[in-house]
Structures are given as structure tokens and as C-alpha cells.
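SEQUENCE-TO-STRUCTURE ENTRY
===========================
What this section holds: a protein sequence and its matching fold, both as plain text.
Question of interest: how does this chain fold, as expressed in C-alpha cells?
***
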Amino acid sequence: MAFTDKYQLTPEQSLFLAKKKWDENVYCGMKMENRAVTFPQTKTILNGVNVPTVQLDDIQAILNMRDAWKHLLNTINEPVTLEYMCKLNEYIARNEALEWGKLRTGTVCISGTDYMPPIPQQEQTKKELEEILTADTTATEKALNAFVWGARGQFFWDGNKRTSLTLANKILVEAGAGILTVTDKYMEQFNVLLLDYYNTGTSDTMKLFLYENAIQGINI
């Protein structure tokens, strides 16, 4: 199916939405990684206040996504490229992975599935991303395709879902098409569908779920 844009925001409205919702998106990224943090804890850490009950590596992950979002907002008019995606991962996976900001050079496993993503090749990965971005589709469909492609491709050693989520939001915010965030209410269903997508390679159900339940905006 074709995914039409649910929102047509002006650049000012889109940036307002992004700045209003980015903390929820950071929390979404944490829950995608099954990290044991609450939204109030996430928001407190983003406000620069220490939360003693949160593990140091979880705090690091929250601050990493904060910095990725700062980069996104500061470069909202820059084109999306493979280099841009690598820069997002450089922020997101900083001090978490073998390397960050670079395509992985070895094999990885995904918990809960036998699917083994192939080792990414730079030129092929670049070509696949360009095909997504230049397709005759809406910004919303480009964002959904970018997310599922990045999540299953596992192009980096770590932070793939968070990088793909942030990349999708770059596409949406730049186009004024909303913001992609999976709330607690839908996280369990998201994880079930994601595992099925890993196993089958068929993304239609996942994209429809995200389209219906995870794209937020401003109704003008």
C-alpha cells in the first residue's frame, strides 16, 4: 500500500514538534533496546539531573541519543546520505560498540531469531539508501522504508534500531510529515512484529503498524 503523509507542517511547525517530542523519542529508543528506564527518569537525565537508580550505561545511552537529536536539529536542512547515517550512529553508539560511526566489518547475531544479517558493503549500502530516498514516494513512506531497512540490515555493531529511528525522523521532520515514536502502549506489539520481520524479511505488516500507531504530528 501507499503511505500518504498524515501531516503537512511548515518548517517552523515541524521543528516545534521535533523539539517538543524529542525526549519521548529518546525514551522510545531506550525501550526499543529493552533498557530498564522510565520516561520520568529519561526526562530527568535529559534535564541534566543525576538519577542514582539508573545504570551508568543506560545514562550513557540516553545522553548519546540526546546528542544525536541535537545533531539532527542542527542539520535539518542537510541531505540524508550514508555519511549522515554513519554520523547519527557515531553519536548513538558512542562508547557502546566495538566501533561507532562506521559500517560493521564482522557478523552479528540478533536475539530471538536465526536471521543473520550479511556484512554490509559500503557501495551497496549507499545504493540501497539512495534508492529509498529517491523513490517516487511520500516522505512518510521513505521514512518507514528507511527504518525497516536499517533495523534489519544491522549495518553497525550496535544502535541499529535507534539509528534507524533517528534517520527516519530526520526524513519526516525535514519534510514536515510528523515524527515517528513508538509509545509504551505499542512497544510489545512492535517487538513481536519486528521479530517476525527479521525472520521473514517482509516489512508490510511492520510498516502498516508504524503508520497507524507511531506517527505523531500537529493537527492545525
